[in-house]
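During the reporting period, we have paired protein sequences with backbone structure tokens. One record among many follows, to show the layout:
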Amino acid sequence: MPSTDLTLIPHPAGSDEDLRLALDDLQLDRWLSTKTLLTRTLSWAQRTSRSQVLAAAAAKGDAISAWLAEDPTDANALMMRARVLTVRVLSAYQRTADHHTLLPQLRAAHAACLEAARRWPADPVPGVCLLALAQVDLDPGRPLHRGNWAEPPEALLPRGPWPVLDQVNRRDHPNREAYQRMLQCFQARGAGAVDFARWASSLAKPGSVLLTLPLYAFVEEYRLRTVGGQVAQTLHFWDNEQVRYYAARARDGWFAHLVQTSTFSQLDLNYLAYALTACGLPGAADVFEAIGPFATHAPWHLLSESRWWEDDFRQARHYAMKQRRPGR
């Protein structure tokens, strides 16, 4: 029986050792290992996930600028510049909450995305960056880009950057981060997030990562109710049949189809583990085993009632292992 003193490794690279080495170099403003890693990354899904993690580290330094100075036409360097500028815009917006003061940075990031897309038209990542930037476009009366407020494919869905999502889908469907960014856009606008997540999930095939999307929407909805002091509305939140349905569907329709869990997002695994334990559904032990020591800050720290979210993870894991079905 695993003990609750499991040593956790909440590292952004998770079990991806090659990514871990590139991140170490970026902290020293070295870019060569990032170039090598991206050159060797063959799938769009892994390119998207790795570049997202790399950009978060690279945004704190000047490694990508140095790379571009060395090779200004490199498609990977241009993509990483779009990534880094997007990260910086979103970080600045969290501090100012006023996109109008960020217009120069927004325009620079948008232009970098378009240039990266022209350099490698098949790459879905520049479009993913444009979807991320749409989170800052919150005023339909003064839109930064008309495409960010396009009509939805179905009447009950909210207006949003649907044309950009379509562009990404033509290159890589379903791109995990693209749908995450759409969800975050609707969350930033304060409406339509749960409807979008359920809609995307309803179109997902067995094994599709989109089956995890409603879990992110529910966690954020629960968090907002908690910080808003809506105790009565949080009391039986995870007992709700709709929430339990989507948690079970992610377990049976996505997790049960994974062949090699190490190649998938640790964040998705952690969200599923949280949802299953919160809902009291079976199967969480298998998910925790797939996670191993690679716990992620979210969703645990988002919903933790104490400063020690790691303890919440360990306790949930310990409980799941105790409840494991006999014979497993």
Remarks:
- The chain has 17 helices and no strands.
